[in-house]
Amino acid sequence: MGLKEGTRVPRLVKVAGLIGLVGVAATGCSTDEVLRFGWPKGITPQADAMRNLWTWSVIAALAVGVIVWALIFWSVAFHRKKKNDDELPRQFQYNLPLELLYTAIPFVMVVVLFFFTATTQNKVLATPANPDEKVNVVAFQWNWEFNYPGYQTPDGQPVRTVGSSSEIPLLVIPVGERVEYDIRSTDVIHSFFVPAWHFKRDTFPNPEKNDQNTKFQNTVEKEGSFVGRCAELCGTYHSMMNFEVRALSKDKFDRYMQLRTQVNPETQRPYTAAEALAEMNCGELCTPHAVTGVPFNTDRTGGQPSGLGVSNN
């Protein structure tokens, strides 16, 4: 009987290990995906900070889980009641040192987790003075406006991109520079969400009255086109309230802004976002709507942007 029990435990360990290996292999995940524990890749340092917090939190949780599972398995395997065994195992329900240990360990774990969570949060939400660029983000039913207070068109207005039923708005930003976003709404609560940034912030009407922090900053680390969405149910066409982030290298961004502050000789009006990108002729990166495509054929005019009467897109 003892010999059979001695060989059964290693066999169970081998079977459990095999099941674990098959489970990992069956997921079809790459090594990098496994190490990220399902967390998608981001394109900002802030996203990387959140991924590190997630990864190490999962590792810590797995470590605790392994210890707990080992203790449970140990108790089940080696402290079972045997035949003709009428004696109860030694009782520990009033063991004060053990109870203090059980209380102290979870407390330390919570404190450590809180510390790293607060540190990561402070890093993600930091807004140092003098960012490289500033963008005002205005949400309205059911579209977006992006305006750049540091740049003006020939008629003295800020460079502005306003979405419409015929055009998805483009948020054009430089790569490798710190950009500050000031977000607000003209009507109901919306939510500014770029999945590739791993960041979402609700947009409120009259945020000062609600004591809402409207600003955040980030730095996009690579060129590309990235979809943006409204992530707060805001009415009839909420699902169609999309926008597109276009991250350009610094020289392309400077060229883009140079065009946006000039008059298009063909239209005799300031260049729109789409016209400026097309004029730059830098391949797919300068193709309007490379990610989100043409908007749905619907009249998304429930609200108004902040620049009433301004037709510059």
Automatic annotation (TrEMBL):
PROSITE patterns: COX2, COX2_CUA, PROKAR_LIPOPROTEIN
Subcellular compartments: Membrane
Topological category with respect to the lipid bilayer: Multi-pass membrane protein
Keyword Transport among UniProt keywords: yes
EC number: 7.1.1.9
Keywords: Copper, Electron transport, Membrane, Metal-binding, Respiratory chain, Translocase, Transmembrane, Transmembrane helix, Transport
Listed transmembrane segments: 55-79, 100-118
Enzyme class: translocase
PANTHER family named among the record's database cross-references: CYTOCHROME C OXIDASE SUBUNIT 2 (PTHR22888:SF9), CYTOCHROME C OXIDASE, SUBUNIT II (PTHR22888)
Name of the protein in its database record: cytochrome-c oxidase
Primary gene name: coxB
